[in-house]
Each structure stands twice: as structure tokens, then as C-alpha cells.
Amino acid sequence: MTRHPPSIDDESLIAALRLTGGHDPVPAHVSAAARAVYGLRMPGATTAQPAATPTPVGVRSADEPRLLRFAAAELTVDLEVTSMDGLVDLAGQVSPPPEAGTRVEVRTLHLTESRELSPTGQFAVTGLPPGWFSVVCHRPEHSSVATSWTRIRP
Fold this sequence. Notes:
Layout: H1 10-20, H2 28-39, E1 46-51, E2 66-71, E3 76-84, E4 87-95, E5 103-108, E6 112-116, E7 122-128, E8 131-138, E9 145-147, E10 150-152
Parallel strand pairs: 1-9
Antiparallel strand pairs: 1-2, 2-3, 3-4, 4-7, 5-6, 5-8, 8-9, 8-10
């Protein structure tokens, strides 16, 4: 014998929802986390997606730095990721070489580090906490380019 749940009509369901509305509020930490994530959006920025990285020549050890590449229509961001003592170091290069005044931000969920690019497009950030990160390239005459969020584990 199959048991069916008791049926409820629409008016009773709406009345029940109104009665329970506000009695089970969203926890404050959930609301705060949602606001923080919403604040990490980059409206108007182009997203650079992960791309295949070339295999390094002469690599013999699995302990070599991890290489990541993100590509958008007009530029590429290459990252070398190393971990030491539970922290993450990023060495990156934006290509083609950027125009003067271009800077990058390396964003995590908890902090943002800003760097001016060298004339060849190189930058480095050390001592980042492991976890999610994104690199945003701010160019004076063009829209910003942000890499997709990527998780780094030491």
C-alpha cells in the first residue's frame, strides 16, 4: 500500500509560508558571506579563461612550480605558482607587454595585492593564503581583464 502525503491547497500553503516567514531568518554569517562574494564582482571586465600551458622543457621533478595560463581575446596571463610553508607565491606575466600605467590586482577572498607591471609585463606576489584567487589586469585605455577564480592548494 502506497502512502501519499496529505494534500494541501494553494491558499493553505501560502498562509503557512506567511506564518513561517521571518521565524527562520538567514544566519548573519551567511548574509555577510553573500555580500562579500557579491563585492568581488568585476562589472564590465572581460574574463580570461584557463588555457593549456606549454610543457616546460627539461623538467625532471614533480616538485617544479605549477604553471597556469589564462587567455582573453586581447591578452594572456601566465602564472607560476609555488608553495612554501603553507603560503603561496605567484610570479606572473601579462602578454603582450602592457602599456604604461597598467597594474594588476591579485585578489583572494580575504585580501587584494596590487602591483605595477614591469615594462615586460612581469609581476610577483608572495605570501598569499592558499585558496581561491583571481588576477585582474587594469589597463588605462581598455577594459579590465580578470582571470576566472582558481583554487590553489599548497
